[in-house]
Amino acid sequence: MKIVLKFIFAIVFLFSINIYSQTVSANATRPSVSDNAFLTAYGYTEVEFGLSTQKNFWSLPLFVKFSAIKNGEFGFLMNGLFNNMTIRNTPETKLGDPGIQFKYQFVNNSSVAFSAVGRLDFMSSNTKLTIYAVPSILTKSGQIDLTVGFSSVNSANSIFYAAAFSPKVDLPFCIYVELFGESWDGYKPFYFDAGISYPVSSDFILDVALVRGLNDDAADWQFQIGFTKTLLKLID
Q1: Of 133, 115, 137, which Cα lies nearest the Cα of 37?
Q2: Per the confidence metrics, is the pTM higher than 0.90?
Q3: Which end of the chain has less Cβ packing within 10 Å, N or C?
């Protein structure tokens, strides 16, 4: 774990260096489970990276985004750059599964935005298809992000949902609270989580979150820490 933490700190330091004149803001979709309906700034690339840990398991989720068209965003993701699971007191570390996704924004105005996402995760023996809708509602008191969709892999289907609220607060950091869960084949974990994000600069956001399972199907506790960083502009 010490090596992993050193690796994370090195990545954070690397991406915290301003490599171009900064004029845009990062669109962090982590650490909440719910996505939001907004996109990476047009023409720019962006990375989200962090550490997610729970009992007998930790992973390093990675998400690289590129807004190649004005209303769309392509993404490459890994459910864990590395995943580590401890079984019978024996830890085992493996590369995570890669995936690709496309996010299209249909609506974006002063009060609401709406996007839809399609994703393929290339698992070791199957390909997992995920489709979901994500409206973001902007109110005087804060932002509401809703996500609802389904996944299908090897003829097994599941549905998932999440609702996050980020209140407007007069603080140097942002907070959110969230409920989320899923349902498939009699398995219905349900969770509550809360987190904090701190903008080091407009293009570099640090985050931390704590997740609490609310039923027997859910893991008791999960912890996340990571960042979002806007990178190079590839299209004018």
Answers
A1: 115
A2: no
A3: C
The string of DSSP codes covering 89-111 is TEEEEE---EEEEEEEEEEE-SS
DSSP H helices in 128-201: none
pLDDT (tens digit per residue) in 135-160: 999 999 999 999 999 999 988 899 99
Q: Tokens 């609270």 correspond to what residue?
A: 177
CA-to-CA dists, residue 88 to 117, 157, 196, angstroms: 38, 30, 34
Residue 135 makes CB contacts below 8 A (sequence gap 6+) with: 37, 112, 113, 114, 145, 146
| Alpha carbon distance 183, 189 (integer Å) | 7
| AA identity, residue 178 | E
CA distance 161 to 69: 27
Can you read off the two tokens belonging to residue 121?
Answer: 């995760």
Maximum average pLDDT range among 77-86, 130-139, 181-190: 130-139
Task: Dig out the tokens for 198 from the structure.
Answer: 């701190």
Q: What is the pLDDT of residues 26-65, one digit of tens each?
A: 999 999 999 999 999 999 999 999 999 998 889 999 999 9
Please list the residues that pair with 138 across neighbouring strands.
143
Q: How far apart are CA 58 and CA 184, in angstroms?
A: 23
- 164 Cβ contact partners less than 8 Å away, ≥ 6 residues apart: 32, 33, 34, 144, 145, 146, 176, 177, 178, 180
pLDDT in tens, 215-225: 999 999 999 99
